[in-house]
Design brief:
alpha/beta; two-stranded antiparallel ribbon; binds glycinamide ribonucleotide
Length: 213
């Protein structure tokens, strides 16, 4: 049984998708937020998951916050930490401590559109395909080895919100898939590439276009 800690900052819909997916041989042992008012905390409690808040407001600098968060996470001795809408940049000591078991979901097809406001920027840039990425976290923001991506079309009529909603649907699908592969010990990091061992007859591609929109 692999133990998972999820970090959130807000709504928590990706966390909820992961809770609902009920990944075999995995147990979500805690949900930690850096915001006391994160809506996702209530959802986690309703699933009977232990929650905690570690707020940057309580610490005088970034490093102290990172240390407190790392300590809280370590208390649960997780095999995997999932950043599911965690909107705080983590320092390099924090990342080094958990490297290889720190996963993030990002709302763009990395390496395009790292950082914030990805949907607005995708529309502005005129790209025809946008999407989402689950990747391992490394010290450089949104640049770690990619585990799985999903693409959606960008429509002429899209507002950032409409595009975000189309992407979010795919996020809710690929995050549980990435976690399942991790729990099955199928992910091997090789430089910037993540190889997915095939331990079954069925092959699941790690780059998936939705069948319809
Ligand atoms: C998601 O779209 C996630 O990809 C994004 O925040 C949203 C959180 O939604 N994460 C980032 O932008 C991280 N850089 P949720 O709280 O409903 O899962």
């Amino acid at each position: 049984m692999k133990k998972i800690v999820i970090l959130i900052s807000g709504r928590g819909s990706n966390m909820q998708a992961l809770l609902k997916a009920n990944v075999a041989n995995a147990r979500i042992v805690a949900v930690i937020s850096n915001k006391a008012d994160a809506a996702g905390l209530k959802i986690a409690e309703n699933f009977g998951i232990e929650t905690a808040v570690v707020s940057q407001k309580d610490f005088k600098n970034r490093n102290d916050f990172d240390c407190a968060l790392a300590k809280k996470i370590a208390h649960f001795s997780p095999d995997l930490i999932v950043l599911a809408g965690f909107m705080r940049i983590l320092g390099k000591d924090f990342v080094a401590r958990f490297e290889g078991r720190l996963m993030n979901i990002h709302p763009s097809l990395l390496p395009s559109f790292t950082g914030l406001n990805t949907h607005e920027r995708a529309i502005e840039a005129g790209v025809k395909i946008h999407g989402c990425t689950v990747h391992f976290v490394t010290p450089e923001l949104d640049c770690g080895p990619i585990i799985i991506q999903a693409a959606v079309p960008v429509l002429d009529s899209d507002s950032p919100d409409a595009l975000a909603a189309r992407v979010l649907k795919e996020e809710h699908r690929i995050l549980p898939q990435a976690v399942t592969w991790f729990v099955e010990n199928r992910l091997k990091i090789n430089g910037l590439r993540v190889e997915i061992a095939d331990n079954s007859a069925e092959k699941t591609p790690s780059s998936v276009f939705p069948r319809s929109t």
